[in-house]
Specification:
The chain is an alpha/beta fold and about 220 residues long. The chain folds into two domains: about 1-90, N-(1-d-carboxylethyl)-l-norvaline Dehydrogenase, domain 2, CATH 1.10.1040; about 90-220, Rossmann fold, CATH 3.40.50. The chain is about 45% helix and about 15% strand. It has helices at about 1-25, 30-40, 60-70, 80-105, 130-140, 170-175, 190-195; strands at about 115, 145-150, 155-160, 160-165, 180, 200-205, 215-220. The longest helix is centred in the middle third of the chain and has 27 residues, at about 80-105. The two termini are about 35 Å apart. The relative contact order is 0.13.
């Protein structure tokens, strides 16, 4: 129960900040600046960050197990189930945003070259289980986009039973892409190379916070 509480606590708080990110986008407010300002308070605030979805073996699954167990005892955990609903919707939001960004440049998803940066579910680990990147990449492939993935910690992964090899991060691979999408913000990635050579970048992790003057960056 202690482990379930820990992971459910994280799931609920991630869901809250994900919903806040969507609201801030509608209001034209930078959610990352809001979080950074809030965490200057020395007590009473613990920063959580929005993203393209949650992954791994614990946070996506433990709250659902707790919900199932609660129902066995005649109790409905509405708060937990709502958090799961919000977190599960984030990959779909990212997919819609990718289409919208391309449409704004008079490009369709079909036939566009899309470079995905990071396919593991978390920064600086090599675990792909339940990664939101898998759902996003699968969707893009089904929509006939040309998808390439770079991840220094994952040489390959499987989508719908098909093995996909990741590519090297080169100037050529970046420059031929209609859109670069940062899904996982590994430390060992040359972000300057991306910013200098990409036509457009959709940054779902605020990985490019140090490149504020660049005009080709779109945040979550």
């Amino acid at each position: 129960m202690v482990k379930l509480l820990e992971n459910t606590f994280r799931s609920v708080n991630i869901a809250m900040v994900n919903e806040l990110a969507l609201m801030c986008h509608k209001m034209g407010i930078d959610v990352w600046e809001i979080i950074n300002a809030a965490k200057t308070k020395p007590f009473g605030f613990m920063p959580f960050y929005p993203g393209p979805g949650i992954g791994g073996h614990c946070i996506p699954l433990d709250p659902l197990y707790l919900s199932w167990k609660a129902r066995q005892h005649g109790f409905e955990v509405r708060f937990i189930e709502l958090a799961d609903e919000i977190n599960s919707s984030m990959p779909h939001y990212v997919m819609d945003k990718i289409s919208s960004i391309l449409n704004s440049k008079r490009k369709s998803l079909k036939g566009s070259n899309i470079l995905i940066i990071g396919v593991t579910y978390k920064k600086d680990i090599n675990d792909i289980r339940e990664s939101p990147a898998l759902e996003i990449v699968s969707h893009l492939i089904k929509k006939d986009a040309n998808v390439y993935c770079h991840d220094p910690l994952a040489a390959n992964f499987r989508i719908d039973g098909k093995k996909i090899n990741t590519v090297k991060l080169t100037k050529e691979n970046i420059s031929i892409s209609d859109l670069v999408v940062i899904i996982t913000d590994h430390s060992d990635i040359d972000y300057k190379l991306i910013v200098d050579n990409a036509k457009l970048i959709f940054d779902t992790r605020n990985a490019l916070k140090d490149f504020k003057s660049s005009k080709n960056i779109i945040k979550l």
